[in-house]
Amino acid sequence: MFSRLCLAIAFSPRFEALLAEAAFLTKLFNAHLTVLHVGEEKQENVDAISQTLIHKTLNSSQFRIICEAGSPSKVILSVCKREKIDLLIAGALQKENIFKYYLGTIGRTILRKARCSVLMLTNPSADGMSLTNIVTLAEDSPFVEEAIAISCTLAQASHAKWIHIVRELKMFGLTLSALEQSTEKEYDNQRHHLLQEEIDKVESILNRVPHSNVKVNIKVISGKSGFELTRFARKKNADLLIVGAPNRRIYFFDRFFRHDLEYVFADMPCNLLIVQVKKDEN
After folding, report:
1. Which member of 91, 124, 140, 254 has the lowest number of beta carbons within 10 Å of its beta carbon?
2. Are residues 140 and 106 in the same domain?
3. Average pLDDT, the chain
C-alpha cells in the first residue's frame, strides 16, 4: 500500500515517539523511510535520528535523513513530490486542553495540497502504533475502498478490537419528512430500507477487502458528516480516524462553506489518516 514513507520531524519532546511510529509503519509496509527535518543540518541531530531508528530495529538501508531549510509547508510538499512519497507522517498540534488536538496553518496546508496520503499523529507512542478502535469513513471519496483496506491491514497488524466503518445517509431527514403522512409501518419500513441500502454498500466493499480476524461494526449516520464523525470517533475512544481524501475539484460554494473535513481538522478526536493513493507514474 505504501512503499515510500516520509516523516516530517522537529526536535520536540515527541521526537523519539514519532520516530518509533514511523519505524513501525516502515516495517509493516516493508517500505523505505525518509526522515525530513526542516532546518539547518547538524550532525548531532542526524546522529540522534539514525541511532533512534536503529534502536527501533531498522537498518541503515531502510531510511535516509534529509535536512532542508525554508518554509515548512513548502519544503515538506516539495520533498514529498521529489521523493515520490506515498505516505507523509507528521505530528498534530495540541491545544491548551490536553484532550483536544487540531491542525494549524502548516498542517492544513499540507492536507489540502499534498498529493499523497497523510498521517497526523496526536499522541505518538514510543512503543510504536497500538490500536484498539479504528474509525473509517466510507463516504465521498474516490479512495474509499483503499481507506477500508488500509484500516483492515492496520487492525490486523496491531490486533485492534474493532473497526467502525461509518457511512452517511444522505438526505435522511428530508426523505423521512416526505413520509410524514405515511402509516407508522410504512415509515419504519422505509427507514429500515434506507439504512440497509447503506449497510449493503459497505458490505460490498468489505467483500473485496481481506479482513479475517477483524471485528467490523457498520454505523450509519445523518447530519453534517464531519461533525457527526468526530463525535462518533470520540464516543468510541478511537485511536485512529481514517478518511479518504476528497475529490480535488473545488466548487464555488466551497469558498463560502466549510468542507465536512474542516470539522475534523479543527478538533481532531485522535490520530488522523487521510488516504490518497497515487497513480502509477511509470
Report:
1. 254
2. no
3. 83
